[in-house]
Amino acid sequence: SRLHSHAEPSTGHILELLRAGRRDAAYTQVVEATQTSLYRFLRHMLRNEEDAQDVFQDTYIRVFRSLDRFRGESSLMTWVLTIGRNTALNRIRSRKAKEDRTLSLDGVDHDGFHPVEDPRETVATRSLEDAVAALPESQREAVWLYYVQDLPLAEIASLTGRPVNTLKSDLLRARTRLREVLDDAGSPVEPRSTTP
Question: What's the DSSP call for residue 9?
């Protein structure tokens, strides 16, 4: 299930606002509906809070500039996550071109934007997050988008440029590995089926 509480405005509603010339109102609703999920996704991709905050801001600058080109061909969440993913990949390429970065800043308290933490998070949730973090990158991304963001496989394929069957294979391998890790930790998990 989704970890954010905002109900995503309908694509039609956003398009209506844009057609009515209410660009600022449309932008505000897009940000409110997607910011927590986008930030968590960027933290997941970049594994560095400072980079995630920078890319988070850069993503919404790009969203604002691209808003008039939004046609509703994918869900609002998928559209924003695609922009965020591409922005994060640019940051990763830039980071790799520089000298090795020092310690990850995960878990360090910083000023600035913080997603609202779900009070229902438990030790089992943390164990699951650690297990997911240990997966290969392609499996980690598929798990995040499918199980956490709750996106359909077709939208994940569109977002990542990977075939649905490849995603299914990644999810199957990831689920097998997560079940092994969490069974060892005494925290079994039964994620949703990958059958469309």
Answer: P
